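Notes taken during the Thursday session

The instructor put the following on the board and asked us to keep it in front of us for the whole hour. The protein is DUF2199 domain-containing protein. We were told not to look anything up and to reason only from what is written here. First, the residues (180 in total):
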Amino acid sequence: MLTSPRQCRCCGATFAQLLSLSCDRPDICSEDMEVEDNSAVLATRGDILTDDFCRLGDLRFVRAVLAIPLPGSRGEEFLLGTWASLSRDDFDAYLDLFEMRETEKLGDRPAWLANAIPPDMPMPAGCVLEMRPEGQYPELKVTEQNHPLYPLQKDGAELEELLELLYAYGHDLPSLVFDA
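Then, after some discussion, the predicted structure tokens were revealed:
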């Protein structure tokens, strides 16, 4: 599962290496909102959704990753492509440095996980958004110790825990374990 491509039987998606999940928008964002080019966030006023940014009223979001270590895997991680809600000032500062691929100059910023992970989680998690170099997506670190992602991110997740998480998102277990 860590090294060969797999195709999910339920959705047909092909995954290389270990499966990961990716949210295409913050949960608060309407499903019918069209995804625009990243340049639109600078050129357009009002609500907008791009591949990397979302602006809804006074709310601001950036795409991020949430990594869950896999014990005994020699450093492999399960990646969750998520969205982070951050202040308007931090969002604007991030935008200013995004094109230059220098967002790491911002350092760590407070943020909120903008997707329900696991899917039945009713409350967003407080996080720290750690900026990374060379244009990489920033990494979300869950800081709320009572959130189910906190121990997974801190201690790592066993394969069974990951399969349960994937199953909660509709991926059937046989397609994850066996070749389709």
